[in-house]
């Protein structure tokens, strides 16, 4: 779609004073998908030269905001970490054409803050941290789970830029489980739940997204039993937190999220049909 209110496109390598009507341009798949009558100038990040995915000395993974879904997918397929399968599962959750894969960016998906954003699901589940850069050059770090605060809402300030997302080494060494539901075969995610089991201390994190207006990450120091898991989710996710749109009613989204969370608990924590519980000890958990 043509943006006929845009009068200028500037290269982000040459800093310019931020003004009303400016917007960062990454892949542009959202910006050019619908009218943006408030925009007057785009600041293009396409030539910043940021390395798409970089393994850090401590084993962590830094994903540039300009990394495309295609680049992340290629990296994930060749990556040997235990959490590597989750990368491709979340990339496939886009259910998008190759054109979108080669243009849409990880940063754009996070900054759109749509409930069904699978890069939000991936990075929140793996305890990712956003690096944000303000117009004066100052930096701040915000956990992905706190970066998105509602449907289409994030904590970015005026002119602030998402530079990258860092995934810690410990999360990347974890076992993962993935569940996704949509009302139809090639539809937007109505519920997406990810489990991450820490190999060091046996803690379990369950992240609920797509079904909710923002990602909810629940951390348990020890694997919970079925009742505890359900109670913790229901206590934290209020009636207004379940998303409601054409892709699914809140009651259905809640049902699928709770069902998937239980399936993931069983898959990752040694559920036995004989006892109907995990082999570990129940423990309370909470948002983290």
From TrEMBL:
It holds the Pfam family FAD_binding_5. Residues 1-172 form the FAD-binding PCMH-type domain. It comes from the Bacteria. It comes from Streptomyces pakalii. This is FAD binding domain-containing protein.
């Amino acid at each position: 779609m043509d943006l006929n209110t845009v009068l200028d496109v500037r290269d982000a390598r040459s800093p310019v004073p931020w003004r009303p009507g400016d917007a960062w341009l990454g892949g542009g798949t959202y910006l050019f998908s619908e009218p943006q009558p408030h925009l007057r100038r785009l600041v293009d990040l396409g030539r910043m030269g940021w390395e798409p995915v970089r393994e850090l000395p401590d084993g962590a993974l830094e994903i540039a905001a300009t990394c495309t879904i295609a680049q992340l997918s290629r990296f994930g397929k060749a990556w040997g970490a235990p959490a590597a399968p989750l990368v491709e599962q979340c990339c496939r959750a886009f259910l998008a054409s190759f054109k979108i894969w080669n243009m849409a960016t990880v940063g754009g998906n996070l900054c759109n803050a749509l409930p069904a954003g699978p890069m939000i699901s991936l990075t929140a589940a793996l305890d990712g941290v956003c690096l944000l850069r303000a117009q004066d050059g100052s930096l701040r770090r915000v956990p992905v789970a706190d970066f998105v605060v509602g449907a289409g809402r994030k904590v970015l300030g005026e002119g602030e830029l998402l530079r990258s997302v860092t995934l810690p080494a410990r999360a990347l060494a974890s076992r993962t489980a993935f569940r996704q539901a949509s009302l139809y075969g090639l539809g937007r995610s109505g519920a997406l739940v990810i489990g991450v089991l820490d190999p060091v201390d046996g803690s379990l994190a369950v992240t609920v997204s797509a079904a909710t207006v923002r990602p909810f990450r629940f951390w348990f120091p020890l694997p919970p039993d079925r009742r505890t898991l359900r109670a913790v989710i229901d206590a934290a996710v209020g009636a207004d937190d379940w998303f409601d749109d054409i892709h699914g009613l809140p009651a259905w989204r809640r049902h699928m999220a709770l069902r998937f969370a239980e399936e993931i608990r069983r898959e990752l924590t040694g559920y036995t049909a004989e006892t109907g519980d995990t082999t570990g000890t129940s423990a309370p958990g909470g948002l983290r």
